[in-house]
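A quick aside before the break. I want you to see a complete sequence-to-structure record at least once, exactly as it would be stored in a machine-readable document. Don't worry about memorizing anything.
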Amino acid sequence: MEQLLHYCWKHKMFLLGALHTTDGQPVEVIDAGLHNRNAGPDFFNAKVKIGGELWVGNVEIHDKSTDWFLHRHERDDHYNNVVLHVAGVIDAEVRTASGLTPPQMQLDVPETVRRNYEELLKADNYPPCYKIVPTLSRIRVHSWMSALETERLERKTDDIARRAACCQSSWEAAYFVTMARNYGFGINGDAMEQWAMNVPLGAVGHHRDDLFQVEALFLGQAGLLDPLSIPERHREAALADPYYQRMASEYKYLAHKFGLQPIDHHLWRFLRLRPQNFPHIRISQLARLYFLRKAGLSQLIDCEDVKSAQQMLATSPTDYWQTHYAFGCESARSEKRLSAASVNLLLINTVVPMLFAYGRHKRDERLCDRAFAFLDQLRAEDNHIVRMWKACGLPVDNAGDSQALIQLKNEYCDRRDCLRCRFGYEFLKG
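That is the input. The structure line, written in tokens, reads:
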């Protein structure tokens, strides 16, 4: 309930004329202060009038005033500048480390707010605020959606920056790893990222003019040339396959030359996976993309519109994989090009975040603006999250909208963090 008290204080959801300290002095909240989500008092630089005298300082909020001692604030100098202690229940006098006794005030959560909050937490219908969504003004919805869209890009920027740090500050490598992860299309995303981190791009660069060698190194580092990675029912045919034999031999040579070790082939998941999404196919597509020099950061930055980015990502596996899904498993001929829907997802999840993250890194607003422009031009994703929000009455016009709604579900709805959500705020107001 303490979070709800924070919320009511922050948004001034209380009867303005009914606030008094425990010793009867009237309290007027001029400025609730800056909400602090880290260590220290809950609100910084608040302005409150107590008994007609203006105080500027920090405000601490608890369910019960005895929580002050439970959290050992009486021993912490950071709480010496608390000018008002707010609690749902006043059951003790509090004291700072400097020996002062800050005034205390009981804060009662309005019954309507409390009831609506409990409804949000207990609602079986998902999302719990669905009733109020159709009543919201378009400008209010647009404002929140824009903020969520930016939040999601910033979260992805953090992921990319982490990858760059793991790659010795190489943004080129971070881009390759990000692209590889998204080539996993969810189910093999983690394995693809681990594989890409294990691909020595510097070594591959020495052989990038030979597609066969690039593919051998890529598949070998994925552990997919290990005979044990091949299902037993196909193993005999695979080991007798001339293409597999040549590739295994080539990888053995390259692994010795560069001192390489593959990842564990058990990381790859095949259950309920469409053959077009087998890691062999995706890695071969990436090998061709790399060979054609379409997988570099400079090529990405040169894409000034969606069409050029789509053309850059267009790829297909090598000839062998036109008639195979795995070694020793022949199939009908299929070009296995990336579908338009797959390219759209790669643009949303790789190209756009990379433009935004690299723009932030280089302080180049043009790249950041281009990222948002791409989202405005790309089709919205069609998944259960987007369909759910559409059913609630939210407009979904482009990829920016769908990304915003994914952020809303993942970071707010799933966590029941309604107190930080603007839709939740409107619901609580009633």
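Two observations worth writing down. Residues 2-109 form one domain. The beta strands are 27-31, 34-35, 43-50, 53-64, 82-89, 104-106, 324-326, 329-330. We'll return to this after the break.
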